[in-house]
From TrEMBL:
Organism expressing this protein natively: Oceanithermus profundus
Domain of life: Bacteria
Chain segments annotated as transmembrane: none
Entry keywords, A to Z: Flavoprotein, Oxidoreductase
UniProt keyword annotation of Acyltransferase present: no
GO molecular function, one term: oxidoreductase activity
Protein name per its UniProtKB record: Thioredoxin reductase
UniProt key word Oxidoreductase: yes
Pfam families from the UniProt entry: Pyr_redox_3
Family annotation (PANTHER family): THIOREDOXIN REDUCTASE 1-RELATED-RELATED (PTHR48105)
InterPro entries attached to this UniProt entry: FAD/NAD-bd_sf, Ferredoxin-NADP_redctase_2
Length: 322
């Protein structure tokens, strides 16, 4: 039986950071990705810039080439996929890890890919599955209707439409501005009395000025009761109101995909796995990297600090295997 030192589940930036560190330290590693490398970034709106500077998103000392101060969705995708192409270890994409069994020294990693099911064995496993494919839902009637979504591809596709944005954090505020600049008529609905305090300092005044001048309508202290074909029924300080719209975008956060860790027997504290200071779960040899270890608290972890999680975890593993 061939035994790897490490299996990384997820080929986003944090998973790639773990693979690079493992290679640097001489560990044998395979990376499994259910879609394509950095697939979560595909879900960003077209041309959307990152909040962080390029140097804070770089992996393994490889510089990221960008035209502006901050990378766009497209620039980041090109960068991370070139990192993936340059790995010396195996990258198995379009293949989903379906189960983890065992503990440090002998994990059985089961997977399902285009050619069927299989398994590999590894001394350790690092879960870096992120959260972008697991959006939080309002849980109201009609949320499954075709005109209601949890993201959008390109703001320019919504020119001339009335778009309802639900949420009050960075993603919702940025979406409202992006859609408005692309020619959409935008109404933002948020259950709080104002957008969240953590909204980026350059977004807040831009948004507030657009609301003040009437370019964007903002309904605060308002919640969505239900979606119906072509309209949302909301309740605010003045009672119920039916908002007719062409598109609704619900952006109220995300939740980490923790199914693998739960089935492997990891202990959880609320929505988060219990982790050591080296991001190891209660199952010896099973690590949770980046947002995979943060449950619904996705505002506390980014590529910038998630890549550090990867380094610490892999260095701890290498120390044990010496």
């Amino acid at each position: 039986m061939s035994l790897l030192d490490l299996v990384v589940v997820g080929a986003g930036p944090v998973g790639l950071a773990a693979a690079l560190e493992a290679e640097r330290l001489g560990l044998s590693v395979s990376v499994f990705e259910a879609r394509r490398p950095a697939a979560s970034i595909e879900r960003f709106p077209a041309r959307m810039p990152f909040f962080s500077e390029a140097r804070k998103l770089e992996l393994g000392g490889h510089p990221m080439a960008v035209l502006g101060a901050k990378p766009t969705r497209e620039e980041a995708l090109v960068y991370y996929r070139r990192i993936a192409e340059g790995l010396n270890s195996a990258l198995v994409y379009r293949t989903r890890v379906t189960a983890l069994e065992g503990a440090q020294g002998a994990f059985r990693v089961r997977f399902q890919g285009p050619r069927g099911a299989g398994e590999v064995w590894s001394r350790a496993v690092a879960v870096a599955t992120g959260y972008f494919f697991n959006p939080r839902r309002l849980g109201v009637p009609g949320e499954e209707l075709a005109w209601v979504g949890h993201g959008y591809r390109d703001a320019l596709e919504h020119w001339g439409e009335h778009v309802l944005v639900v949420g009050g954090s960075n993603s919702a505020v940025e979406a409202a501005l992006d859609l408005w600049r692309a020619g959409a008529r935008v109404t933002l609905v948020h259950r709080g009395p104002e957008v969240r305090p953590g909204v980026k300092y350059w977004l807040r005044p831009d948004f507030e000025n657009r609301v003040r001048e009437g370019a964007i309508r903002a309904l605060f202290s308002t919640r969505v009761l239900r979606f119906e074909p072509g309209r949302a029924v909301v309740a605010g300080p003045d009672g119920e109101e039916a908002l007719e719209a062409d598109r609704a975008v619900v952006l109220i956060g995300y939740r980490a995909d923790d199914a693998l860790m739960r089935t492997a027997g990891a202990r959880f504290e609320g929505a988060r796995p219990a982790l050591s200071d080296r991001f190891e779960t209660s199952v010896p040899g099973l690590f949770a990297l980046g947002s995979a270890g943060y449950g619904e608290d996705t505002r506390s972890v980014f590529i910038e600090n998630g890549r550090e999680h990867a380094r610490l975890a892999v260095r701890e593993l290498a120390r044990r295997l010496r």
